[in-house]
Amino acid sequence: MNDTTLKIAIAEPSVIIRSGLSVVLKRVTGLHIQTFEITTIDLINNYVRLHKPDVLIINPAYWGAVDVARLKQDSGVGDLKCFALTSAMTDPAIIKQYDDEITTYDTAESIREKLNKLFEPAVIEAGEENETLSQREKEILVCVVKGQTNKEIAQDLFLSTHTVITHRRNIARKLEIHSTAGLTIYAIVNKLVELDEIKKDM
Amino acid sequence: MQTHKFTERTRMSELVNEDASLLSTISRFGISFGFGDKTVKEACLANNIDCNTFLAVVNFLSEGNIEITEVLDTISIETVIGYLKNAHEYFLDYKLPSIRNKLIAAVDSSDQSEPYKVVFMKFFDEYFSEVKKHMEYEDKTVFPYVIKLLKGKTEGKYKIADFEDQHSDVDSKLAELKNILIKYYPAKGVNYMLNDVLFDLLSCEKDLSMHNQVEDFFFVPYIEAIEQKNKLA
Fold first, then answer.
1. What residues of A are in contact with residue B115 (Cβ under 8 Å)?
2. Residues of chain A that touch chain B, judged by Cβ-Cβ distance less than 8 Å
3. How far is residue B218's CA from residue B72's CA, in Å, rounded to a whole number?
4. Which ipTM score applies to this complex?
5. Dihedral sign of CA atoms B82, B87, B92, B95 in order
6. Which of A59, A85, A171, B13 is 20 to 30 A removed from B108 (C-alpha atoms)?
7. Do the chains contact at B120 and A185, CB–CB below 8 Å?
8. What distance in Å separates the CA atoms of residue B96 and residue B100, rounded to the nearest whole number?
9. Which of B59, B176, B216 should be substituted to probe chain A, the one whose Cβ sees the most A Cβ atoms within 10 Å?
10. What is Dmax (Cα atoms) for chain A?
11. Closest partner residue to B65 among A22, A50, A182, by Cβ?
C-alpha cells in the first residue's frame, strides 16, 4: 500500500448496497479510499490476484461458503484484511472467520474506527502529525539535494547510514515528496540552498 | 443482465450534455463534433467504430465506480487499442507540452524566476519522459503483443499481467508536483497563471488516472481472458 490510498474491494450482489457502501467509504476522513465493486463470487479470486486490494468486504449471507483463510492464502497479498458485510443477525461462527464486521447501519465514522483497529496508526494518522522538518532533517535534505550519497551524508554529519535513511524516510513522509527532483524544488523555494550550490547536477 | 445509462439509442448531444468529461473520450474514438441529431449507433457507424465497445468505455468512465464483472466478449479490442493510442497522442503531443508552457509562464512571472525555472523544469521534464517511456512501451510492445495474440499467435513468456503494476509510479509523480505547488510554492498575492497551471494539472491527473483505469480494468482483464482460453485450447 502506498502512503494514503487504501484499495477496498466490495463483493456484494446488490448494486444498491454495493454502491451505497462505496459512497460511505469515500466519506471516511483521513484516508483516500479507492473502491472496487465485485458483482459475483466467481470473480473474487481472479480480481484479488490481479489487483491486490488492501481490504476485501464480502457479504456472507449470499456467499456463506467462502473460506476466508483460504482466500487470504491464495490472494498473494501479504496482509489482506477481510470484513463481513451484514444486514441481519449472522452466525457468529461465520463472522469469526473475518477480521471484523461492517453492518448496513455503520457510519463513515464507525467504519473509520474499524479500519483504524486493523491498520497500524502509521497508515491512518499520517496526515495528522506535525509536518514541519526538524533542524537535522533540513541539514540532511540540503545534502541530498546537493547530490551526496547516504554514506557521504553519514560521514559529514557523524551519523550512521541507517540513521540517515530513517531521516530521509521521515522527510519524504512529512513533505509528501519522494523524488530528489521534487526535494530540490522544495529546498529552492524555501531558500535552504542556492541554485549555484546545486547547479552541477542540473 | 447489467443495464447502463447510455445505450445505442442515446443521442450524441445528450451524452455530452450529461457528462462533459466524455468530450475527450469521444474525440479519442475518432468521432468528430457536429453530431446533429445522430444517435450513438449512427455516429459509430458513420465513423466505423464498434458501437458496443464505445458504449462499454463511455459507461465505464461515466459511472465513476469500478465494477468488476464478467469480461464482455462483445467488444472489439482493435477499437480499444485505437482509443488508447489516440489518448497517448493527446497526452504526449498536446496536453503535457501545453502544461509545460503554462508552468514556464507562471514561474517566469515570479521574482525568483531563474532558479525556480531551472528546478521546476527539471522536475517536469523528468516526469514527462517517464510518462513518455511508459506510453511508448505500450504502443510498441503491449499493443503489438495483443494484436498477435488475437490472431492466435503466442510467443515468448510475456504476459499481460506483467504490465499492470507500472501505473502507480507515473501517477504519483504528477501528484507530487501538484503537492509542491499547492503546499510549498511561495506565491505572492493572486496569481492567476499559477491557478491555471494547477487546474490543468488536476484535470490532467484525473484524466490520466481514468485512462489507466480503462487499461487496468477493461483492457487487461479482457486480454487475460484470451490468454487463459489459449492456454486451455
1. 188, 194-195
2. 2, 9, 19, 22, 34-40, 43, 46-47, 50-51, 175-179, 181-182, 184-186, 188-190, 194-195, 199, 202
3. 9
4. 0.71
5. positive
6. A171
7. yes
8. 6
9. B176
10. 69
11. A22
Could you give phi then psi for residue A121, rounded to 5 degrees? -50, -30
Cα distance between residue A134 and residue B19, in whole Å: 47
Q: CA of A40: which chain B residue's CA is closest?
A: B69
Q: Which residue has the cell 494547477?
A: B198
What distance in Å separates the CA atoms of residue B33 and residue B26, rounded to the nearest whole number?
9
- Nearest by CB to A188, which of B70, B119, B183? B119
Which SS3 state, helix, strand or coil, does residue A105 take?
coil
Amino acid at B49: I
Cell of A202: 542540473
pLDDT in tens, A81-118: 999 999 888 888 888 889 999 999 999 999 999 998 88
pTM for the model: 0.79
Q: How many CB pairs under 8 A join A and B?
A: 87
Cα–chain center distance at A100: 18
Please classify residue B223 by burial: count the beta carbons closer than 10 Å to its beta carbon, then call 0-12 exposed, 13-18 middle and 19+ buried: buried
Q: Compute the half-sphere exposure of residue A180: CA atoms within 13 Å on the CB side of its CA.
A: 13
Contact (CB, 8 A) for A59 and A95? no
- Quote the CA–CA distance of A58 and A86 in Å, as a whole number: 9
Give the separation between CA A42 and CA B108, rounded to whole angstroms.
56
Can you tell me the distance from the alpha carbon of B9 to that of A96, in angstroms, rounded to the nearest whole number? 49
How many H helices and E strands in chain B? 11, 1
Instruction: Please state, in angstroms and rounded to a whole number, the distance separating the CA atoms of residues A23 and A108.
Output: 9
- Tell if the CB–CB gap between A38 and B177 is shorter than 8 Å: no
Closest approach of chain A CAs to the CA of B64, in angstroms?
Answer: 10
